[in-house]
């Protein structure tokens, strides 16, 4: 059996090595390392894939979120509503801009923003809602968009973990996550579902004026060369990454299918086990399984993780400390929050290896080991 890893980016690369190597050499020979045709082509391809009018490439997913908040004119003293059960980047960028993150509860099954909790957290200072499509499952966008529209709020989707997820509205309209809110943000961090060979990110929007602003902010607030209209930053996707991403984008649906197949395998292996809750799949969206995350009931999680590790099986806790309990947010009253579901999940979740290169033998070995420990 091949060694087990949380993600296997090397095996994935080897399958498309010829194409990728040629594309990288092309960029080197052209010596157009920043901007240019390769980057623009990738942005156009990604826009077409996502059904989005505009794609603004940038340096990483964290920047994408920051640039989104800047372009929407959010400023110090404003509030944004976000989950605490997320990767830190979502809320860190708000804090960096002096914006107050307001942490709200997630749904116990989907791990994503609880719309009722969002509604209760709205104050006159609220400017935006930032749902995170955690682990590849979509947040309840229909309700979140309705709340936002009712209260005149912006929605910034953190789509770093869910690129390719199809979300269906109750009227039958289907949209990709990241194309539903006023702005969508994603990351091409190597382990993400569409991963570069380094850092990268992108911002999505349907709005022409907003697209202009996002582009400007990502490029030193520049409207034309050496004319800087607003304070911006420097956030670029380089041509080498864009060339690689163009190739990988063509395989993205295949990659998602492989992840779903792996998730189906685990689901079947753990079916009906009362100590293991397999990932919930709400029928309104198609989970892309960036992570395969179990909720454990009455299981010694550290013991399981140790047991798996001794068998050469990696596992991870995403995330061991929710944002509101991070020291970083002490100044924002983080410790005052009472988020029972978030704390409950933080103590019980565990993620198993899931990626495009897992084979059945590996998965059987992993599932057997989990069950062996739990049935002990
Ligand atoms: C990865 C990730 C980010 C940040 O992306 P980077 O490219 O690492 O900056 C933001 N939010 C979520 C939910 C992520 O998973």
Task: Report on the architecture of this protein.
It contains 12 helices and 14 strands. By secondary structure, it is of the alpha/beta class. The strands form 4 sheets. It has a 7-stranded mixed sheet with strand order 1-9-8-5-4-2-3, with helices on both faces. The structure holds pyridoxal-5'-phosphate. Pyridoxal-5'-phosphate binds at residues 60-62, 86-87, 89-90, 132, 158, 160-161, 187, 189, 199, 201.
Q: Which features characterize this protein?
A:
Aspartate Aminotransferase, domain 1, binds pyridoxal-5'-phosphate, Aspartate Aminotransferase, domain 2, single chain, 14 strands, three-stranded antiparallel β-sheet, 376 residues, alpha/beta, 12 helices
How are the strands of the biggest sheet laid out side by side?
A: 1-9-8-5-4-2-3
Distance between the termini: 25 Å
Coarse shape: globular
Radius of gyration based on Cα positions: 21 Å
The largest sheet, given as strand count, sense and whether it forms a barrel, is:
7 strands, mixed
Q: Topology as H/E string?
A: HHHEHEHEHEHEEEEEHEEHEEHHEH
Quaternary structure type = single chain
Q: For this structure, what is the CATH homologous superfamily of the largest domain?
A: Type I PLP-dependent aspartate aminotransferase-like (Major domain)
Write down the CATH class of the largest domain. Alpha Beta
Q: Beta-sheet strand percentage?
A: 5-15%
H/I helix tally: 12
């Amino acid at each position: 059996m091949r060694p087990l890893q949380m993600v296997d980016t090397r095996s994935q690369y080897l399958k498309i090595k010829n194409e990728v190597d040629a594309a990288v050499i092309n960029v080197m020979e052209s010596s157009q390392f920043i901007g240019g045709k390769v980057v623009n082509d990738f942005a156009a391809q990604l826009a077409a894939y996502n059904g989005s009018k505009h794609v603004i490439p940038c340096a990483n997913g964290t920047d994408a979120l920051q640039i989104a908040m800047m372009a929407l004119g959010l400023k110090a003293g404003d509030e944004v509503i976000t989950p605490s059960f997320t990767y830190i980047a979502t809320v860190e960028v708000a804090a960096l801009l002096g914006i107050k993150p307001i942490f709200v509860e997630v749904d116990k099954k989907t791990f994503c923003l609880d719309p009722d909790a969002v509604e209760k957290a709205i104050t006159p200072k609220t400017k935006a809602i930032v749902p995170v499509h955690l682990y590849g499952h979509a947040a309840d966008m229909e309700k979140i968009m309705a709340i936002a529209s009712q209260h005149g709020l912006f929605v910034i989707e953190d789509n770093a973990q869910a690129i390719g997820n199809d979300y269906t509205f109750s009227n039958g309209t289907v949209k990709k996550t990241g194309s539903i809110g006023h702005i969508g943000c994603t990351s091409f961090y190597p382990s993400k579902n569409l991963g570069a060979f380094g850092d990268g990110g992108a911002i999505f929007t349907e709005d022409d004026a907003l697209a202009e602003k996002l582009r400007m902010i990502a490029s030193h607030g520049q409207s034309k060369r050496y004319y800087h209209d607003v304070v911006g930053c420097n956030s670029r996707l380089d041509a080498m990454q864009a060339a690689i991403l163009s190739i990988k984008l063509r395989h993205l649906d295949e990659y998602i299918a492989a992840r779903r197949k792996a998730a189906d395998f685990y689901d079947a292996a753990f079916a009906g086990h009362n100590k293991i809750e397999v990932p919930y799949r709400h029928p309104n969206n198609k989970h892309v399984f960036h992570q395969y995350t179990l909720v454990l009931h009455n299981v010694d999680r550290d013991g399981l993780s140790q047991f798996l590790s001794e068998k050469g099986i990696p596992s991870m806790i995403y995330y061991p400390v929710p944002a509101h309990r991070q020291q970083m947010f002490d100044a924002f009253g983080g410790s005052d929050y009472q988020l029972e579901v978030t704390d409950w999940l933080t103590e019980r979740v565990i993620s198993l290896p899931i990626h495009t290169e897992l084979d059945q033998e590996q998965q059987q070995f992993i599932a057997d080991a989990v069950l062996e420990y739990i049935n002990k």
